[in-house]
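SEQUENCE AND FOLD
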Amino acid sequence: MQGFYISIQTNVEGFEMFKPLWKVRGFEGVMVKTIMEGIQKAIELGKSKTKSLSFIVIVADDVDYIPQLENLRFETDAPIFIAASKSDDTERLEALKRGADYYGNYCVTPEANIETALAIINGINRRMIKQNSPPENMAYNNLRLSVALRKGFINGSDMSLTRIEFDAHF
């Protein structure tokens, strides 16, 4: 299983239609009917040692989510998607300001919805990994480090460190 998702919506039929499509891609989901239930589930998953929260989908057509969206964002760093049947520029702007990562209309097919969500999740994950990885090169006064090469240089001369020495010190 790749991960776990929360679907905040009241449409059981819609959830049941998407659930097997996500499962085939390695995601297990749970449906909650209110944003407060979603917040509680995000907190629970944040404390779980066995499941990590991959993303949250909010079906905007049937859930009053805007007032509590900031609280949900406070509880999780997982991507938050807002899916709507009609475009609403005011609501989109408010959702994005309060912590949503994406606000969009439903795609023509369920598969297209899932592929769009996965593309966004992968983009967010790539940026997070890049943000959390050490820089390629570091410098301090006369000391230069190349993380990729695992080498250190003082005044341009190789420090002659083994990989183990480099890892132990840097």
In short: The beta strands are 3-8, 27-32, 53-59, 80-84, 102-105, 137-140, 143-146, 151-154, 157-158. The radius of gyration is 21 Å. The longest helix spans residues 110-132. The chain has a mean pLDDT of 86.
